[in-house]
Amino acid sequence: MFMTIAEVLTREQNGVLHCDGAWIRAHRRQLATVVTIRGEIDALNADRIAGCIRRFILGEDRVVLDMSGVTGFAAPGISLLQTFDDDCRAEGVQWTLVASPAVTESLGDSGFSDEHSVPEALQDLADAIALRRRLALPLVRTS
């Protein structure tokens, strides 16, 4: 059963999902849904966190995964990100990672690029949308 972002957020206390040492909160912005994870991600909670953040892959809505407040990031966290990436690709959802130093250190050369902040990630999305519109405009004019 699929739920809307509003339903997921209101279902939990104050819109916060608690996951055994980490908490998750999502905010709908004009350009994307920002899913914020704070705390530690380890073998005990990685599967539960993966299930929680999967809820925010909706339609073609873009997602900014804000992990800037993650203080501990064990190896299961990398698997969590790989699964999230696979799920987003399967749904055609573009996503961006904002990583904390703990996450960046653990990821190394795993292929995940990250933004330095949520505002930078949202600005990059806005720039990409504007570029696509500029590229598409000549095609629309010639039709």
From TrEMBL:
It comes from the Bacteria. Gene3D superfamilies: STAS domain. Residues 22-99 form the STAS domain. This is STAS domain-containing protein.
